[in-house]
Amino acid sequence: MSSRPVIALTPHQSPSRLPPNGKHFFIWTIGCQMNEADSAKVAAMLQEVGYQRTENEQDADIVVLNSCVVRQAAEDKVAGKLNSLARLKRQKPEMPLVLTGCMVTRQQEALRARFPHVDLFFDPSDFDKLEAVVPELAELEDDLAALPHYYQPETSAGASSVSAFVPIIYGCNFLCSYCIVPYRRGKERSRPMEEIVREVERMVSGGVREVTLLGQTVNAYGHDLPGQFGLADLLRAVDAVAGVERLRFLTSHPKYMSHEIIDTMAGLRSACEHMNLPVQAGDNEVLRRMRRTYTRDLWQERIAYTRERMEGVTVATDIIVGFPGETDEQFMQTHELLDEVGCDKVHLAMYSPRPGTLSARWEDDVPHEEKHRRHQTLEHLQERICTEQNGRRLGETYEVLVEGKAKGRWSGRTRGNTLVHFDDDRALLGKLVDVRITRTTPWFLIGEGTGTTR
Ligand code: SAH
Ligand code: SF4
Questions:
Q1: Is residue 271 a contact partner of residue 264, using CB atoms and an 8 Å limit?
Q2: CB 269: neighbour CB atoms within 10 A?
């Protein structure tokens, strides 16, 4: 496979520091954007020492799986993938099989016993560990952590690298009672602002036009660093980088979603009119037992303020249904809240007990069928809301950043993060195109390119 734009970073940097070695790597990723960013980093490290990507695990000289355990279903998929690789590992015993991501704990004995065919388990914050199975990495003299490579996962064929993820804060200081993330990702650690800005500059010189700042609680950025600065300051600094056309950040915690951050977003050229603010539940008693540290009113106030300050802003949120003890009335509070607020996107999850968390000690007393029913109920509600909201977009023109082409149609996203498919004969990959909407569905928009591109 040829080198991807991922490597064509800065004019002064050669594509990879070691020549191609004829070896291939295969990376499989599930979970959140942080995992995608970490996988992109691993890919970049391997490319630096001459490896090339393959989409086919049979051709690989090294296989890396990046895991997620936020819900049982994700964990089951990882276990399934690991088990299915056992055969390949028997055929190619010399091929390192590596597991990273949130399945990897500090105590690895249990994992080793369960998956004896895995050669290396590494904590997602400890990239240097890869040297154990890729000794060439040790030949690179400088700090691997400084590699400017948090590139959009070049997963699907034809996807562009015009859009990139940049982790800015690792870990989480909250302890929501259902959540395993703090146990696997540790306490908050913000990256220095100058390091982030430099990374963004390098990305832009490699063709990136949209930057998404990442963190489990991205708006807690800076709280752990000396000095009095936070996400608002970082947004201003990244916005000032010439060539950053679109700036996004996720995931925010309602408690830290200050008016200062919202005002800053509203005033910046590149900051997109999109707010990702998980609420998780609409009932205050459930929120209290989830240890979310805010009320429904606070979340609603933050959304209302954002809408006041940014015209046309779209809103995404996360919801868990069937939390222990959630009654039907409490569930209906969530229903009512979503109906009232009208989010553009809702990530719905059925509660899944995670061993080691506080709520796992409580009875998982909402039966699976009932969780499923609540999930379906909210899905139907959301379909109705999105039908209405997207329906109002008919005939409007939106700026779309073109990310790929499938079945003869271009696709990309608006500044509000709505997916748009459109017809246009021009070569548009990576371009900003004005698209007039000719048809709407609850989940995406269809349109045609107008004359204007940038
Ligand atoms: N930091 C973010 C969420 C991180 S986890 C926040 O504060 O909201 C991503 C999503 O997974 C959560 O928003 C939640 O909806 C879901 N999730 C986390 N733990 C879960 C569990 N035990 N069961 C079901 N869904 C869960
Ligand atoms: Fe998990 Fe809560 Fe931290 Fe989000 S804020 S990562 S849900 S503990």
A1: yes
A2: 10
Burial class, 5, CB count within 10 angstroms (exposed 0-12 / middle 13-18 / buried 19+): middle
Asked if residue 70 has its Cβ within 6 Å of ligand 1, the reply is yes
CA-nearest residue, atom 2 of ligand 2: 176
Cα-based angle 246, 248, 252 (whole degrees, multiple of 5): 170
Burial class (CB in 10 A: 0-12, 13-18, 19+), 76: exposed
Q: How many other C-beta atoms can be found within 10 angstroms of the C-beta atom of residue 260?
A: 12
Over residues 16-42, the pLDDT tens digits come to 677 888 999 999 999 999 999 999 889
How many angstroms separate the alpha carbon of residue 171 from the centre of ligand 2? 9
Nearest Cα neighbor of 70 from 372, 367, 353 is 353
What residue ranges in 188-313 does DSSP mark as E strands?
189-190, 210-214, 246-250, 274-276
Pocket test residue of 32, 170, 172 for ligand 2, highest count of atoms within 8 A of CB:
172
pLDDT digits (tens, 9 = 90+) for 239-297: 999 999 999 999 999 999 999 999 999 999 999 999 999 999 999 999 999 999 999 99
Dig out the tokens for 389 from the structure: 């909201």
Give the nearest ligand 1 atom to 350 CA: 24
How far is it, in rounded angstroms, from Cα 321 to Cα 163? 32
Residue 89 Cβ inside 6 Å of ligand 1? The answer reads: no
Report, in this order, helix, strand and coil percent for the chain, each rounded to 5. Answer: 35, 20, 45
Residue whose tokens read 């309602």 = 254
Domains of the chain, start order: 24-145 (3.40.50.12160), 397-453 (2.40.50.140)
